[in-house]
Amino acid sequence: MVRIAGLPDIGAAFDRVVATAQNGLEVLRLGGLETGTEPAPFSVVETERMFRLRRYFPDDTTSGPQIILVPPMMVSANVYDVTEQNGAVSVLRRHGITSWVIDFGSPDTEEGGMERTLADHIVAVSRAIDIIVESTGQDVHLAGYSQGGMFAYQAAAFRRSKNIASLITFGSPVDVLAALPLGLPAGLVVPGAELLADRVFNRVWVPSWMARTGFQLLDPIKTARSRIEFLRKLHDRDALLPREDQRRFLEAEGWVAWSGPAIAELLRQFVSHNRMVSGGFVIKDELVTLAEITCPVLAFVGEADDIGQPIAVRGIVRAAPEADVYESRLPVGHFGLVVGSASGSHTWPTTADWVLWQSGAGQRPELIEEMEIPDAAQGSGVSLSSRITHGLSSFAGAGSGVSREILGVANSVSRTSRAVAQESVRTVPRLFRLGQIQSGTRISLGKLMSENNKRGGRQELFLFENRVLTHAQVNTRIDNVVAGLIECGIRPGVHVGVMMDTRPSALVVVAALSRLGAVAVLLASESDVAEMLRLADCSVVIADPNHLSIATEHSDRVLVLGGGSGEKRDIQGADGSSVIDMELIDPDAVSIPAWYRADPGLAGDLAFILFTRTSNKLAPWPVTNHRFAMSAFGAASAAGLTDRDTVYCLPPLHHASGLLTTLGATVVGQSRIALSDGIDPERFATEVSRYGVTVVSYTWTMLREVVRSEDFRINQYNPIRLFMGSGMPTGLWRDVTVSFPNARVLEFFATADGSAILANVAGDKIGSMGKPLPETNPVQVAGYELDEARLSIDADGFVRRADVGEVGLLLAKSRHRFELSATLLRDVFAPRDRWEVSGHLFRRDANDDLWLQGSVDSVIRTAEGSVFVPPIENALSEIRGVDIAVVYGLGEPGAEIAVAAVSTRQGARSESLTVSQLRIGLGALPAEQRPHLIWVVDEIPVSESYRPLVGPLVRQGVPKPGARVWFRDAEGRYRRYTRTAAAELDWDVRTIDASTADTRG
Questions:
Q1: CB atoms within 10 A of CB 833
Q2: In the prediction, which pLDDT does 816 show?
Q3: What is the pTM of this model?
Q4: Domains and CATH numbers, the chain
Q5: In what order do the strands lie in the sheet with 66-70?
Q6: FRET partner for 822 with CA separation of 20 to 30 A, picked from 303, 414, 533, 916?
């Protein structure tokens, strides 16, 4: 056809229209253009319920490295063979590597597919590894794209890296909450994820078309651009064919359905709780942490990836500190990491080079580098400019810098607002509920646990010995124990002793007694058990097998619980009368009486009995349900506990810190409770990582067994954010903050009657007891005349408030008439007010923070005046090399001498303690407030709760002169205590009565 100049080329236009119509018709009929390419050959070597295992190029006889490729849940296994030349399996084959691919299939077409859980996929990956290792005799390289990479990480952790030569991931996020897709704020996503997991995906599933649409909506600009580009070139078949296989995969063929339970588990464990980083995620009732990955890791990072954002992907370097972690960066988005020209030229050749290097058959790849710890201040790692550049391929460099700055400011504001909002959402409802409690309010430990079970019965509660018990399982166990108690004749109001190790069975027993309405009497086996039982009017004891002999020695009726099933153990003396093995009771056969009502406890009812020592005498410490709730709600709010926390419960339950501020606060916070067999540095480090511990509870000197041990090693990026407890010496407090720089210490103090509960929430004043917890009783420090043992009165006849820095008596305001267990005073500071006397001395600083000076009974009354014990002990504990320090008085009141005993730390010699150290350490105290004698002892014994005991030291009397003993001279300086010095001081040893000293429990 002859073309006339100046007129359109009608022939070419006609040909274009015809070609467009023909190609369009082919797309409509076949879903795409016929490219003539063939998929790589493979054979299915194993078929199981969860997967089919493909071996690509089955006719090859190479004995080279083996790699297993894991697809995401929502993407077809063909993602590793999308294009003929650049597909993963083809590129890897050219390098002599055998590729295996796990094909999970599409859940909507597989038998039982819609019931698949996340754990099923991880176990399937582990099973596939076993099959390949058994078949080839070689360790395998485990690789995964996107969520498939998350599966790879989780399977490697599940296997403790067994038979895994290396890990390779492509755009797989680890620290999910560090950078969510599209920059969504975690404060919005986390509650939404919990809601979807609990209310939506436990009922529905996601079809393939919805998965495809959701993926495309994550980058709508690129999706629209690619479709417009395809329509514009529809006439040019040759231009479309090179990308047609990729387009068809993304538009239709590459997507499969998601099962609802798997999505719910993903959202709950790895989005809401972010347990890829913290550890403690659950695979088939086994606790797993990425910290146990030890094989080399290579992570591919898409610099424009808005799904697996760089900072989220780089979270692996913190989560797996024992692994050598490398990265390789590409200027592509999420899908471009594994499909397309960039993957063919960069991803898969680099993967092949990595595999050969790790197999000892090649050099280190040029395109990898050691991964560095991500800086949270840099945002997600994908700047706004990168997103726009990737989507439109046009944006000025100057604008990118401005965008990053704006985004940084926005992220900072978002993080701050989110923190404030989350804290308010957690704290306000708890404090409101606490403020509403009256004497007739139904509130108890058992009721709180029932409420948690109704909210989330399938969520984990107890973690112990690498096992997991859910709220529902624990609730069933509690009800079964209640049935057993009823069968044994226990009724509401009965006082029942509990002598058990801190294990799940002990917590279940305490909760069961609460549910029944009985009173749990918490017994310490090291104390005077007979006296405890007498004081508590208790005639029956529940014990575990470890405490059976002690319990039977002091009680005529013992119920045995815990320690395994009845068929696997032999309880000596179990006659069904005096000693009853409760594990043999069938709860279904128990006839529940008509009077039984679950969780009947009211706020004013007695719930627990603890024990304390007052004036060197054992005294009961009654705890009502209101006191328990006040401690539990207050501690949970102060610690900011949520269901995303895992609390490491180390204190014994017979200590107030174990029962009130640990168990109680954890139940209120709906947190997981991790239990241990004891304090051991290696076990501590292992369980913190494996359980994902975020909060550690303690008592007294407990943590010295960990942080001061020469064997203590822990991941510096461990998930611990808080230590909570009571009685920690200031020297140990500082050591803890040095060993755990990202955590703070939350020190609690409670009076023996529970009328005052203080907490050092900020943690910035080491040694301070802080202020009263919100919604607990207000306190005041009243002027107190120690010599006269009476309150100081002002000119108007009211009690005088102590001045700043003055030592006075702590009083707690009584707000509930039903809650009286201490001495009550009226008209104290104003007419008609009511205050409870605590018996503890405090001083108040200028910021109203309170500093403990000891109990009234612990004051050492010397000829020079009163000496307070805690300030001396804290000062000595901070001297380098000192492990434990205790102070006690010897002699008659008014003529006592103050004696300090110190033990040295592991590896430190007693000779290393010098006079200069003592002078500097005690320099902040006036001379008359320092001990008369200081001596170094080999060991200071501690109780079950790790409280230092001075009784054995008191019984030794005045230390004998020696090289490790110093005395205070008239100027307040310390000198060696020699025989000559002892004779000159002329202390009347005969007047010293060791029985008058405070034995401190």
A1: 16
A2: 63
A3: 0.84
A4: 437-638 (3.40.50.12780), 775-855 (2.30.38), 859-996 (3.30.300.30)
A5: 42-47, 52-56, 98-103, 66-70, 140-145, 164-170, 297-302, 325-330, 369-370
A6: 533
